[in-house]
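Appendix B, Record 12. Input sequence as logged:
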Amino acid sequence: MGDEHRISIWFFIGSLLTAYGVIIFIVSLPGLLNPAHEADVVLANLHAGVWWGILLVLLGLMYVILFWPFGKEKNESNEDAG
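Logged structural output:
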């Protein structure tokens, strides 16, 4: 298997971070929309799950975009000749 078939591990890490961020964000939405059931939780008004979910999605998307393996054409021979 040559270098053209390798996929960076950072692409998979970015995919996982994005998926986890979406899950955390979705699970945290009820607390954002209905804060009455979180009245006993200290600092519940900060909605840490929402912010953490957004942060993970942004970080994950950054890795996915930077290390996107599909559609890249490596023409090193053309660069050397040029």
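The mean pLDDT is 84.
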